[in-house]
């Protein structure tokens, strides 16, 4: 399904789209329970739509992520369509737009000068600078 095809009061929505924006979450209390809510903007090749994120979904989704919404629900507020997971939907992150950090002890990953690091005498063979000239 594409964003342009989504209608207000429609359920069972399955869509894959990119998160382009995410607002700062706000807290609320309803029926004695506290929660968090925020809005995000989804984009696909057909358009954009607002996505309402609740509680734990807020922290796992970031701008740049590509997500899949399964069994979602579309409501309408002030003549604007808004997607949410509703009672039975779920959001899956297909790809993350945030850089991934990692730790390594392998010197060849970050420093190509150590490409022959595994020599028996642990000598480092220098790289000829002319190898990298186009």
How does the SSE layout of this entry go?
Blueprint: E1 10-22, E2 26-30, E3 33-44, E4 47-54, H1 56-60, E5 66-77, E6 80-84, E7 90-95, H2 107-110
Parallel strand pairs: 4-6
Antiparallel strand pairs: 1-3, 1-5, 2-3, 3-4, 5-6, 5-7
Give your account of this protein's structure.
By secondary structure, the protein is mainly beta. It has a domain at 3-95: Nucleic acid-binding proteins (OB fold (Dihydrolipoamide Acetyltransferase, E2P)). It contains two helices and seven strands; from the N terminus they run ββββαβββα. Strands 1-3-4-6-5 form a five-stranded mixed β-barrel. The protein starts with 9 loop residues before the first strand and ends in a 24-residue tail after the last helix.
In round numbers, the mean pLDDT is: 83
Indicate the CATH topology of the domain at 3-95: OB fold (Dihydrolipoamide Acetyltransferase, E2P)
pLDDT < 50 stretches: none
Per DSSP, the total helix count is 2
Largest sheet: 5 strands, mixed, barrel
What is the first-to-last residue Cα distance?
A: 46 Å
Short synopsis of the structure:
With 134 residues, this protein is mainly beta. It is 7% helix and 46% strand.
Key traits:
five-stranded mixed β-barrel, 134 residues, 2 helices, single chain, OB fold (Dihydrolipoamide Acetyltransferase, E2P), globular
């Amino acid at each position: 399904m594409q964003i342009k095809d989504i209608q207000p009061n429609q359920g069972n929505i399955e869509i894959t789209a990119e998160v382009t924006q995410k607002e700062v979450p706000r807290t609320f209390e309803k029926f004695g329970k506290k929660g968090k809510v925020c809005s995000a903007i989804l984009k696909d090749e057909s358009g954009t739509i607002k996505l309402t994120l609740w509680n734990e979904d807020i922290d796992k989704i970031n701008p740049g992520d590509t997500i899949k919404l399964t069994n979602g629900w579309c409501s309408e507020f002030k003549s604007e369509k808004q997607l949410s997971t509703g009672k039975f939907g779920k959001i899956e992150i297909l790809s993350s737009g945030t850089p991934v950090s990692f730790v390594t002890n392998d010197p060849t990953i970050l420093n190509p000068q150590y490409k022959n690091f595994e020599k028996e005498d642990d000598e480092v063979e220098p790289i000829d600078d002319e190898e990298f000239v186009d």
